[in-house]
Specification:
Protein name: Glutamate--tRNA ligase, chloroplastic/mitochondrial
Radius of gyration: 34 Å
Shape: elongated
Subcellular location: Mitochondrion; Plastid, Chloroplast
Number of helices: 24
GO cellular component, one term: mitochondrion
EC number: 6.1.1.17
Strand content: 5-15%
Catalytic activity: tRNA(Glu) + L-glutamate + ATP = L-glutamyl-tRNA(Glu) + AMP + diphosphate
Number of strands: 15
Length: about 550
Amino acid sequence: MATLAAAPWFRARLIPNRHSLLRYRQSLCFRRRSLSVYALAGDEGDVRVRFAPSPTGNLHVGGARTALFNYLYARSKGGKFILRIEDTDLERSTRESEEAVLRDLSWLGLAWDEGPGIGGNYGPYRQSERNALYKQFAEKLLQSGHVYRCFCSNEELEKMKEIAKLKQLPPVYTGRWASATEKEVQEELAKGTPYTYRFRVPKEGSLKIDDLIRGEVSWNFDTLGDFVIMRSNGQPVYNFCVTVDDATMAISHIIRAEEHLPNTLRQALIYKALGFPMPHFAHVSLILAPDRSKLSKRHGATSVGQFRDMGYLPQAMVNYLALLGWGDGTENEFYTLEQLVEKFTIERVNKSGAIFDSTKLRWMNGQYLRSLPSEELNQVIGERWKDAGIVTESQGVFIQDAILLLKDGIDLIPDSEKALSSLLSYPLYETLASTEGKPILEDGVSEVAKSLLAAYDSGELSGALAEGQPGWKNWVKNFGKLMKRKGKSLFMPLRVLLTGKLHGPDIGATTVLLYKAGTSGSVVPQAGFVTFDERFKILREVQWESFSTNASLSAGAVTH
């Protein structure tokens, strides 16, 4: 509900135009500057919401969340989700940006019911194609006296701002054209003086709306001043365009970012002047960076396209964006788009700012990635590895086993390249020379190396690995008995000697996979893979005394 306080007294009942799908009931009642406007579209009419991006850049995650909330509200109410392109900024709007926005919305799965590429009964759906409509309604307002021609020059307007600033007053229009005579207007028209169309704002009164998210919000008219709706070049101003569009497209609920909240006063006045029913308003809070400033490029990726290119899944993005300011009151954090439609209510949207946590988004993406059907996961990562020049084929037993082994450490698809490359590498010397490697040296890893070399030279280890995991388990059990070691004392030195690393996935599965990599021809030779033959050659050449000496010298340096 919105309440406007104005001047004259009258009572009127407005009926929506014949093109509207909505069954509005609006009651206007002026009494001593009091006007009440009731918009009952929620229960008595069809729900129609819109997302109206400007094609001046990429789709920001904030815009994507607004689109998502509109989509969820429409679907939950059995209504329509309309996409409208607000491209009146001719200098900055591009068709490339529009296509990128459409592509990102489609990638997220937010299918629109009316709009570019689909059409509908309320088109056209680009503002640049609706200029004739704006001029028609501007002329209607001029004829009704709600708008007047303003011939003030830019210099005159700047002077008004300066005077207002000196008097510490709002920079409202105080020009003489609000009360100019018809003769004065005709004289300027005859001279060809450029003019704008200004909306005549009541000098007294206020507007009060019941925002579906923020509750009651009000403004006084005296903070506004007469505002321009048509520029001197004939181009309409944003607030006029959006009001005409929302009204003529029968939009019942306007769900948008809170930065548009100040625009509501201008738009409500235009609605009233044109006799259009007022929609419901819901202003969604901003998405904030961890430092609680507005999320921007300096905080990293901010557009949907960037996250897509980084390897994020659309279902993870949708899930995470929905949780930025909304929750169903449970501890659940995972929802499909269909589940969100079922659970979503505008009443549970929080009016405080939501923090964008890229770490949590990454974690959530990992959960979604690992929950993909194995065939789909294998295909996506297998193709990634082949395109990166690591493997010779994008499918097969090696690919399946490698993904099964590494997937718990993969949150984004590009992570899979680093994970496999790391597995195939053999940084033995770096590990032994590190601070973390010192306990391994002190635990007699050189003696384990001698026995391991003997097992490899005899073919015993290779024969066991050819049998897969069962062969490895039998071999390592016997090797442990031979070395009189078990648990960490056995597996830590084996991990270092076989993989060159102190940490990683299961050592048995890793060793069997490395053996397969060397015998199956699945790995591209130039991919940095160190085969078992090469590993044991390196191992054979290790001068263990040098590591022990370096460790002793280092310990002595610390002591002194």
